[in-house]
Design brief:
Belongs to the UPF0702 family. The structure is a single chain. This protein is 48% helix and 10% strand.
Amino acid sequence: MTVWSHNLGISPLEALWVILSATGIYAAFFVLIRTAGQRALASWSTMDKAIVIAFGSVLGRVVLGYTPTLAAGVIGLATMFALFRLEAVLRRTRRGAYFSSKPILLMAGEQVLQAGLRSAKIVEDELYFKLRQAGIRNFSEVALVVLEPTGDVSVLRRGELIDPLLLRRIPNRDSIPAHLVLPG
């Protein structure tokens, strides 16, 4: 037994496997979230939370291997944090658009945008829940409803005109009624 594995409980080769496993799981998670869409990050039901806990358990075992040690845990965690930071740096580059989702317009004024709901993988009942959560009592109170890149749903009320700068990344912003947006 080497000094490394005797003192740390992990050999250099095992440490490399932890790094490769963590990188592989991170990449798979990234691809699956991109495939599932922003909706996968939106508010979760109790069942969704239970599934996430189960995923965490499975992912932990995959990353750490059969005999997890403190050293393997630290290496796996450090690898995940390093990948997270790398992704953040890449988001700021010219090609960073691939790493971040665009907002999706779900409602423009009183009109529910079916194409937006389909794209966001949201059903009307979920939209209505978000409207009620925002204190909306009538569709006439709505200026915009947007699924944000974070998975959150933003509900903007009528009253104040919307600054066009706030709409710049929304792909179909031309469907927003002009009387709701500041001229500019």
